[in-house]
Amino acid sequence: MSQSPVEISTLSNGLTVVTHAMPQLETVALGIWVRAGARDEQAMENGIAHLLEHMAFKGTKRRSARDIAEEIEAAGGDINASTAMENTAYYARVLKDDWRLALDVLSDILIDPVFDGQELERERDVILQEIAAANDTPDDLVFDLLQGRAWPEHPLGRPILGTAERVVAHDVVAITGYRDRHYAANRMVVAAAGNIDHRRLAAEAEALLAGLTPASRRSWQVPRFVGGPALAARPLDQTHVAFGLPGVSYHDHDVYTMQVLSGILGGGMSSRLFQELREERGLCYAVYSYATSYEDGGILTVYAATAPDKADALVSVMSDVMRSLADDIPESEVARARAQIKAGLVMNLESAAGRADQIARQFLAFGRVPEISELIARIDAVDATQVSALAGRVLTGSQPAMGAVGAITSLAPYERIAARFT
Question: Residue 364's domain spans which residues?
């Protein structure tokens, strides 16, 4: 058996280094992933994790905001960051000989950021524009509404960007406090994929990130799926509709069954939703589903948009198609969905950036990086009986969450819609 290209080391302060060597490449994708995100915010802190991510690039004790961008781009690389519910990532992609520069810059913005008040005011305005853009984009807004109804009064139900009211209130003290509580060495992973030597990267990370200290792991409040409607009337040419049903945690043995279920439902042009709503009835242009898993819960989401006078028919057919999954499912549909999921896993092996992100998130979630062969075996073990059984539980477990944006007066009352799922 060939040796795995994935190597893992734990540094003296508890930080983990994970690499996947791809010696055939001329580049390296490298980043620092933090097990802290929007889910770690208190209600009054909503949006602060995302604001911190932005502020990390606004200058350090050694570099100005311009220096950070220019040093990476002068080497032909790029640098960016992203905030999710359960983690935040800071990453760069560079030529293979410039990985030290990338790690030095990323370490600098995490170890020695300078949260300047004037920079905060400017960046706050940028984020307020980002929030306004999301509110003006119906196929963004509908998912925020959906999440809020799925988990009201829980961090998973709040928008990652935050609200304008909350973002305006965040100051340097609040940002620093959030960072000091959650950015701990044992909650971080330095991950790299590409033409990289693991031992050299680990040694460099030990030197650059020694200033980080460990902290006790903070437990998350367990989410309780509630459901219900959240409607936003807008003068639009389309009505955007999204449904959410209780999903599964990424620790749940049904996590791949849920992915297969979602694939059959709305995972591509051969999916039931696409074939029925678009190909057979012409009710919409875009329709899809996806399953999101968190540490202790999840959500199955279905989305479509149509003309206002067709919205009620769209919702009716969507619910019929979703209910059909609890009936017999041909093995051919299961096989197609399994193939799509397996292809996605394998395709990440051909992208240094995709693979670095994959191994970092896997380690943060499971404390290890599963072999691709192990994941494929778990996917291959999913059969039609399991998918139907899970669909039956999901569809009858609770009332659905529903978001709608546009001309909503043509929609049936939520109670009538919800009754179609039971």
Answer: 228-419
The answer to pTM > 0.90 is: yes
Question: Is 50 within a domain?
Answer: yes
Question: What's the order of all strands across the beta sheet hosting 78-83?
Answer: 6-10, 16-21, 188-194, 27-34, 88-95, 78-83
| Token output for 404 | 């709608």
Give residue 2's pLDDT: 46
Please give the structure tokens belonging to residue 221: 């409040």
Mind listing the pLDDT tens digit for each residue in 376-395? 999 999 999 999 999 999 98
**Residue 96 main-chain phi, psi, to 5 deg:** -60, -30
The answer to whether residues 37 and 178 touch, using CB atoms and an 8 Å cutoff, is no
Sequence-separated (6 or more) residues with CB below 8 Å from residue 11 = 17, 185, 202, 205, 206, 209, 210
Known catalytic membership, residue 153: no
Q: Which of 45, 53, 71, 295 is catalytic?
A: 53
Q: What CA dihedral angle connects 164, 168, 171 and 175, to 10 degrees?
A: 10
Q: Could you give the CA distance from residue 230 to residue 214 in angstroms, rounded to a whole number? A: 41
Give the total number of structural domains in the chain.
2
Q: Are residues 240 and 200 in the same domain?
A: no
Asked whether residue 247 falls in the same domain as residue 115, the answer is no
* Interior/surface letters 214-244, b for 16+ CB within 10 angstroms, e for the rest: eeeeeebeebebbbebbbbebeeebbbbbbb
Q: Do 157 and 266 belong together in one domain?
A: no
Residue 219 lies in a domain: no
Both tokens assigned to 255: 């996590």
In percent, the amount of the chain with pLDDT more than 90 equals: 91
Structural domain includes residue 216: no
pLDDT grade, residue 218 (50/70/90)?
confident
Lateral strand order in the sheet of 228-233: 228-233, 401-406, 239-246, 297-306, 287-294
For residues 276 and 389, state if they share a domain: yes
Residue 51: CATH number of its domain: 3.30.830.10
